Amino acid sequence: MAKLTKHHLFWPVTMLVALLLFNLCYSPDFFSIQIRNGHLYGSLIDILNFGAPLIVVAIGMTLVIATKGVDLSVGSVVAITGALACLTLNKSSDQNGYTVVLLAIIMSLVLALILGLWNGLLVSLGGIQPIIATLILMVAGRGIAQLITSGQIITVTSPRFNYVGAGSLAGLPFSVFIVMAIFIIAVILTRKSALGLFIESVGTNSEASRLAGIRSKTILISVYAFCGLCAGVAGLILSSNVSSADGNNAGLWIELDAILAVVIGGTSMNGGRFYLSGTLVGALIIQTLTTTIYMIGVPPEITLVVKAFVVLIVCLIQSESFRKSLFERRKSHKNLGKTEVSRHV
Amino acid sequence: MFKKQYLPIMVTIALFMLMFAAGAFRYTGFFSLQVLLNLLIDNAFLLIVAIGMTFVIISGGIDLSVGSMIALTTMISASLVQNLGWSPFIVIPLVLMIGATFGCAMGAIIHYFDIQPFIVTLAGMFLARGLCYVISINTITINNAFYTSMAQTKIHLPGGNFISISVVIALIAIVLAIYIAHYTRFGRNVYAMGGSEQSAILMGLSVARTKILVYTLSGFCSALSGVVFTFYMLSGYGLHANGLELDAIAAVVIGGTLLTGGVGYLVGTFFGVMTQGVIQTIISFEGTLSSWWTKIVIGLLLFSFIVFQRLLTSRRTSGRG
């Protein structure tokens, strides 16, 4: 039992299950999934579908945070890629053509990769603090996105492009498959090769890992590039889901939600250790929380207040001094003598 | 006479003058005292909030909650004054106190539980923004006599120019802040803490008190800025000052304050704010350029200043070593 509670997924999964059970109590048909026209419908499917962009961004963010960094620019990258894809489609004569849709997708992903590389270069070669380095793109990126869309909302009518975010494959939303693919790629890359270990080592001490023979700069750059690419995918899913690009509001606050998902999933902001599966659960928790708040009829604006408390509680639990102060107070009541010993356990 | 440590400030001031000169050269009617004063009038709230941010960044932290705190202040003021009919003379001290308390609480959490400022103030940002919507999701317009008179009063200067009351508040705030930063023990502690927290502890400085006070000051400044913003907008709205924390951070950085802490000047912040103001004014004079260019130009400036600082500091440390 003690082993079970120690597992890094224990608390996130418990939280998710508790949230889902609460929803079930509130509306008994929460878990029901129907089949309409060969597609599955239901609240759970909605959570997966609407949560897809957040999960993808959070996967990229996990690796960045594992290197003791943070990427604030993902929201802007989401907006930029969505804008570029929609602009490409909008400018072409046949919006539904295979080549055009493919071109739009590839171009936006390449752009997202370049933006990620830019962040990585600033952090690794420039030696600039990650918060600040990515702040530049966060500020300028919204401007760039609005520049691409000329400050308007570009709408596209392309069923093929729409399929990326709203289509369904084998009954499930297509976005779920994209998420699964990225998740599996990330897990294989980091857990079936030494790459994950390298990332954690760079996050613990990049100088020491460089001396140990790890190319810490290359690792940093590729991690940020991957995070940019993930944000690009999220941008495509989001913009294709609504068939439009809004430079101002697309992906707004998603960086904060993603960081929150990563932290809830058990990855520490101090770097050096990361849990991709934890992030997956964390992002699902946030999406379920949002759905719950909508469902029980609380004004959606209050989501922010709830999230604020979730962030604080999660951080407090992660904080060593907070746990210590709780723990030691209880200990000192019971038996004063044993505190010294128990500290090492 | 010329110290190398003043180089970033010099560059900022030179940049500001260069941009203003370029604007004057290009647009008729740009080169006037009133345009310069308008920069102050339109950016008084940004200046006040950037003062608090300067202290936080010099101390080695960051405060992301300031924009939301401004929105919350406008919201509380508007609902109390407009909906409940409270006197502004009670409401304004009250919101200032709320801001300070909010900052103090964040500072305490950052210090005692050793959580990164980034995360704690992020939670603060969510909380303040959310509380705005708890009050109301709509705009509350203020037509209270005191607020409108504060908004409309023009203080005439010789030569037919004028400034607003907000400018006076902002100027008093910056003078006070310069005094606090350079002539008080608290100011010296902030610099010491930003330079190296470990050394500050070893020197016996009260790091706990200083850190909490820095965030309290920032909370107070954002509430004060919120009051000024209320004078400016004459309304309370949950989306007011969205993203202003980034403008404030950008102003501080462009003003030459090192993001790693320990180095920075409030005069630089002043010119950082003014530089942002000039960019906006030039873009509005240009007419054909849209407002999103502001963001791109500020991003570019931010980039060049960070790289510039990086080069300066790396040369300094390598020179020492």
TrEMBL record, chain A:
Annotated localization: Cell membrane
Q: Which organism is it from?
A: Paenibacillus crassostreae
Span of the signal peptide:
none
Q: How does it sit in the membrane?
A: Multi-pass membrane protein
Q: What is its main location?
A: membrane
- This chain belongs to the protein called Sugar ABC transporter permease
Q: Transmembrane segments in this chain: where? A: 9-27, 47-65, 72-90, 96-118, 130-149, 169-189, 219-238, 274-296, 302-322
Which InterPro entries does this chain map to? ABC_transp_permease
What are this entry's molecular-function GO terms? transmembrane transporter activity
Q: Which CDD domains match?
A: TM_PBP1_transp_AraH_like
The alphabetized UniProt keywords are: Cell membrane, Membrane, Transmembrane, Transmembrane helix
- Provide the Gene Ontology terms for cellular component: plasma membrane
From TrEMBL, chain B:
The source's domain of life comes to Bacteria
Q: Which InterPro entries match?
A: ABC_transp_permease
The name under which this protein is listed is Sugar ABC transporter permease
Q: Where do transmembrane segments lie in this chain?
A: 6-25, 37-58, 64-82, 89-113, 119-141, 162-181, 212-234, 246-272, 292-312
Where does this polypeptide localize?
Answer: Cell membrane
Which terms are listed as keywords in the entry? Answer: Cell membrane, Membrane, Transmembrane, Transmembrane helix
Query: What's a Pfam family this protein contains?
Result: BPD_transp_2
Asked if the keyword Cell cycle belongs to this entry, the reply reads: no
